[in-house]
Amino acid sequence: DTGVSQNPRHKITKRGQNVTFRCDPISEHNRLYWYRQTLGQGPEFLTYFQNEAQLEKSRLLSDRFSAERPKGSFSTLEIQRTEQGDSAMYLCASSLGQPSNTDTQYFGPGTRLTVL
Amino acid sequence: AQSVSQHNHHVILSEAASLELGCNYSYGGTVNLFWYVQYPGQHLQLLLKYFSGDPLVKGIKGFEAEFIKSKFSFNLRKPSVQWSDTAEYFCAVTSSTGYSSASKIIFGSGTRLSIRP
Hints:
The structure holds two protein chains of two kinds.
Chain A: E1 5-7, E2 10-13, E3 19-24, E4 31-37, E5 44-50, E6 53-57, E7 65-68, E8 75-79, E9 88-95, E10 106-107, E11 111-115
Parallel strand pairs in A: 2-11
Antiparallel strand pairs in A: 1-3, 3-8, 4-5, 4-9, 5-6, 7-8, 9-10, 9-11
Chain B: E1 3-5, E2 10-14, E3 19-21, E4 24-26, E5 31-38, E6 45-50, E7 56-58, E8 64-68, E9 73-78, E10 87-95, E11 106-107, E12 111-116
Parallel strand pairs in B: 2-12
Antiparallel strand pairs in B: 1-4, 3-9, 5-6, 5-10, 7-8, 8-9, 10-11, 10-12
């Protein structure tokens, strides 16, 4: 399978713990995005990377959240001191990085986080 | 701010019925429009997209959508649905800002489609 992959697929944690998710984009895609989806809603943008540079962050991304893409390939999203409100599906997407009027994002299966 | 509205939260149809899912967006500039589908237990998949040109776009599995700029709409249609079309459908928009900046996707809240066999 050469699509976007995410690990783990499910994570259950206790409030206050730290969690880290990983995303492996489609090979040769230089843009990588993180979204969050809660029940009954569409995905909401969190942040994106152009190669290793983090170029935009949503106001949804509080200071407890940090994302990295150290070598411009895979990315990690860390949530520190998790809260019950962080429970959601965390989606990763990647794109080739064509001009924005032709660029298409492809999504991974997501990591479902449950904070008890 | 950009926004996307999907007014139908849950649609129930019988097989062979025709489908139209509404989508309206709010944005003053040039937009790119998408429909994504999420089948039960699967990840989001691109159904079709509009960047420019013919406002009637055709996607996979017999779906099509029409971009009506004057109405800020991008409704999804299929003439005859199948049980396998049961899924959640998301309308989405990005702004067309040029090469140097990527575009985050703004999604609607989704429409759950249930097809009765």
